[in-house]
């Protein structure tokens, strides 16, 4: 690990501070102080999950920014620093230096030479001298990602996100399956009908993010008293990118500045991702430690001393008015997430989403599928049953080992209408929008009208940008994905006959850049971009469905004249080839928050009739599959078989495209905390 003489000189200053460890919760034990390590946040035993009333205050936000600025100055660079609360409210964005001299390139290539043609890859802004940059959008996305992927049981950074969203897990290791959260980057999009947007002051979340979730190192969660209270994101190097290899350790300037900003708000050491394994592989929290910093964050000048020559707070269209705000208290009505209070899910320690008036946003309700529709009682039973499974399940990505899985569960009807959303205590926020994406994806792909809906969507636009101009260089006809799928499956009526029940695991198999997943020598799945065009910024149909909406919002945030903010609804946005107009032509909610391509959903049937789907997202993808599949199965048992999983003969695992069987669900072995049951999904 790199260490300089001036680091050695101030290391000792950290020890007295590090030894003062706040009590996080009943029974919490402090981590032994380590030289050069911020140990201000202790290990939390889990006995206080969701009960802390901590939040980020204006003073906290000022300190976080000041610490980041000090590190940026020590490194001789300018940075844009964003701070958000746990539900994604932007509390401040601070930009150092002059934005007119900066550009931000979206790329998978760290040197800026983007090898991929399409999607967001290679987009570079500013494109005109009068435009605002997208450094603030990148910083916000990183901050939200740090907050959304973390909980009191796990602390994940954007470097972790980079590790788990690429075509191989681990990145750089050929012939390995894709990352477990492959595709999560296109969630919590600004066009989602579930996420909220800035209304003048921090309010109920979850809030949207301008670029989806970020996989660019430089975003971390912020903790107080063992509780995640927000996130910080930094953009300084001009690249919005990923780390293509986990085989080395980088000194990333964005990551170093962001880590400095977390000092005294850092993740409990025992909860960091590098204490968590997935498929036997240790996750990577950061490549930079406090001992690698160029400045002592504890000695950072007070925020009040920062002059205009250093930088300034900035407004961000659709996100912030340029004033520092207090964050909301998670778990209380003002955050948009609160305890159910046994109103709908008695005895299950459930949490629900609420609006500004503390009213439930998504209470159980009946579906819209006519005579066969899910009833309100059936929806409630599915949600209660899934909560029961989650509360028994052992989490994959949560400390301490043996903790309950924390998840969000969404139920929709066959048209994607939201029929109910419920959460378990301390479920990570990213899973809120993702669980709905998963439910809608399973319902959509299993329907008999998916092909016709796709054919009705406008072409996806791909942009080319320079310092002087922005233009559309390519249009993608979305129905081409239907054609590719039909050829791949040798089924001329695929997505038009409703004969196959698809889960997110099955659809995800079809949306990988290799089929079978991870086998480098094979071609791509029909819903993916081919090699040379695929990247985490260009995934295929998943992105193309929402591409125009994503671009419209990015251009709006960047200040492009005449481009309004995107409305709710990710599918159906028209973007003129000369960018002179935008509009939304497709109504309905079928894909209103986009598609998702990693596991955790099942369609719901009444006999052979599709009537909806359930999606789950939280503490492990196999756990997500199990909670969805077993939750629905058990609900069907309770309801005497009135509803259930798809008949076995309709499930996607009957298909053998290219001689390789599609998957339906995959449940963990010995999954329950309170028993030794195994193969719990088999034979059902």
UniProtKB/TrEMBL annotation:
Keyword Isomerase applies: no
Record InterPro entries: GlcG_carb_metab_protein, PduO/GlcC-like, PduO/GlcC-like_sf
Keywords: Signal
Secretion signal, residue range per the UniProt entry: 1-23
SUPFAM superfamilies: GlcG-like (SSF143744)
Official protein name in the record: Heme-binding protein
Organism name: Steroidobacter flavus
């Amino acid at each position: 690990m790199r260490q300089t003489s001036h680091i050695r000189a101030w290391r000792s200053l950290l020890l007295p501070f590090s030894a003062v460890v706040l009590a996080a919760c009943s029974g919490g034990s402090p981590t032994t102080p380590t030289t050069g390590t911020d140990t201000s946040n202790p290990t939390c035993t889990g006995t206080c999950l969701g009960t802390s009333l901590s939040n980020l205050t204006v003073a906290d936000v000022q300190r976080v920014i000041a610490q980041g600025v000090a590190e940026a100055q020590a490194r001789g660079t300018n940075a844009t620093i964003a701070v958000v609360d746990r539900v994604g409210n932007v509390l401040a964005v601070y930009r150092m230096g002059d934005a007119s001299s900066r550009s931000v390139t979206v790329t998978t290539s760290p040197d800026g030479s983007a090898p991929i043609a399409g999607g967001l890859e290679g987009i570079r802004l500013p494109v005109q001298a009068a435009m605002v940059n997208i450094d603030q959008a990148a910083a916000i996305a990183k901050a939200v990602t740090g907050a959304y992927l973390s909980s009191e049981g796990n602390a994940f950074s954007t470097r972790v996100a980079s590790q788990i969203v690429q075509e191989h897990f681990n990145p750089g290791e050929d012939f390995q399956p894709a990352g477990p959260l492959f595709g999560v980057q296109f969630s919590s999009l600004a066009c989602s009908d579930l996420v909220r947007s800035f209304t003048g002051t921090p309010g109920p979340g979850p809030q949207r993010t301008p670029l989806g979730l970020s996989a660019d190192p430089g975003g971390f969660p912020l903790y107080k008293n063992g509780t995640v209270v927000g996130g910080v994101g930094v953009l300084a190097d001009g690249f919005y990118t990923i780390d293509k290899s986990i085989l080395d350790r980088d000194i990333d300037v964005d990551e170093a500045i962001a880590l400095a900003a977390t000092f005294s708000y850092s993740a409990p050491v025992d909860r960091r991702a590098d204490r968590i394994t997935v498929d036997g592989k240790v996750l990577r929290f950061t490549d930079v430690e406090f001992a690698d910093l160029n400045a002592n964050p504890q000695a950072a000048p007070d925020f009040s001393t920062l002059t205009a020559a250093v930088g300034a707070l900035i407004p961000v269209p659709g996100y912030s008015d340029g004033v520092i705000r207090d964050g909301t208290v998670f778990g209380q009505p003002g955050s948009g997430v609160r305890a159910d209070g046994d109103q709908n899910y008695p005895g299950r320690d459930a949490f629900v989403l609420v609006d500004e008036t503390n009213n439930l946003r998504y209470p159980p309700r009946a579906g819209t599928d006519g005579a066969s529709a899910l009833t309100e009682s059936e929806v409630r039973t599915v949600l209660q049953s899934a909560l029961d499974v989650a509360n028994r399940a052992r989490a994959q990505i949560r400390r301490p080992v043996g903790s309950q899985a924390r998840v969000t569960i969404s139920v929709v009807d066959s048209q994607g209408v939201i029929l109910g959303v419920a959460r378990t205590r301390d479920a990570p926020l990213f899973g809120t929008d993702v669980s709905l994406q998963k439910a809608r994806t399973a319902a959509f792909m299993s329907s008999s009208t998916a092909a016709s809906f796709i054919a009705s969507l406008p072409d996806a636009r791909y942009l080319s940008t320079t310092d002087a101009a922005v233009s559309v260089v390519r249009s993608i006809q979305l129905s081409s994905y239907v054609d590719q799928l039909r050829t791949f499956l040798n089924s001329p009526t695929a997505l038009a006959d409703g004969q196959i029940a698809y889960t997110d695991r099955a659809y995800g198999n079809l949306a990988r850049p290799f089929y079978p997943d991870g086998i480098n020598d094979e071609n791509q799945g029909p819903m993916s971009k081919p090699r040379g065009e695929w990247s985490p910024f260009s995934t295929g149909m998943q992105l193309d469905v929402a591409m125009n909406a994503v671009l419209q919002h990015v251009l709006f945030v960047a200040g492009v004249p005449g481009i309004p903010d995107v409305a709710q609804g990710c599918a159906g946005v028209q973007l003129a080839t000369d960018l002179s107009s935008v509009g939304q032509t497709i109504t309905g909610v079928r894909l209103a928050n986009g598609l998702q391509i990693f596991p955790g959903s099942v369609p719901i049937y009444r006999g052979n009739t599709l009537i909806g789907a359930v999606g789950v997202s939280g503490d492990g993808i196999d756990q997500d599959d199990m909670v969805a599949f077993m939750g629905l199965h058990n609900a069907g048992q309770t309801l005497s078989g009135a509803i259930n999983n798809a008949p076995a003969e309709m499930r996607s695992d009957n298909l053998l495209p290219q001689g390789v069987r599609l998957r339906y669900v995959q449940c963990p072995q010995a999954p329950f905390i309170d028993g030794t049951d195994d193969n719990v999904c088999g034979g059902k």
